[in-house]
Amino acid sequence: MYELIKAKRLRKNKEYQFVYRRGKSYVSRLVVLYVLRRSSKQPTRIGFVTGKKIGCAVERNRCRRLMKEVYRLHQYELPSGFDLILIGRSALKHANYIQAEQYIIKLLYIANVIDNKKL
């Protein structure tokens, strides 16, 4: 029920580059969010990125797992018709789940992806 299936992920480099070029970015202390509005008939897709500035592979994977878990538990609160990219920043490696959840949900609210009623 709460799985992240392939149809709901960005997988190709071309898809990521399109969102980077055409989407709007929102920045917080822990993550950067890119949002691109699509047709409301299409499902919301998401991609997760962590750069080498975060640290070694273990730290990057932990940050990616943290972002995925926040999205996995809140994916049914999001409307359809968006392409999203979450980029972890170096402060994310020191954050716990609750902090990551607060920052990501706040960015989704600022980007008008979710409304205040669903928070």
From TrEMBL:
InterPro entries: Ribosomal_Su5_D2-typ_SF, Ribsml_uS5_D2-typ_fold_subgr, RNase_P. GO terms for cellular component: ribonuclease P complex. Consists of a catalytic RNA component (M1 or rnpB) and a protein subunit. It holds the Pfam family Ribonuclease_P. PANTHER family: RIBONUCLEASE P PROTEIN COMPONENT (PTHR33992). GO terms for molecular function: 3'-tRNA processing endoribonuclease activity; ribonuclease P activity; tRNA binding. The lineage of its organism: Bacteria, Bacillati, Bacillota, Negativicutes, Veillonellales. The keyword Transmembrane does not apply. Its EC number is 3.1.26.5. The keyword Nuclease applies. Belongs to the RnpA family. This is Ribonuclease P protein component. RNaseP catalyzes the removal of the 5'-leader sequence from pre-tRNA to produce the mature 5'-terminus. It can also cleave other RNA substrates such as 4.5S RNA. The protein component plays an auxiliary but essential role in vivo by binding to the 5'-leader sequence and broadening the substrate specificity of the ribozyme. Keywords: Endonuclease, Hydrolase, Nuclease, RNA-binding, tRNA processing. GO terms for biological process: tRNA 5'-leader removal. It catalyses: Endonucleolytic cleavage of RNA, removing 5'-extranucleotides from tRNA precursor.
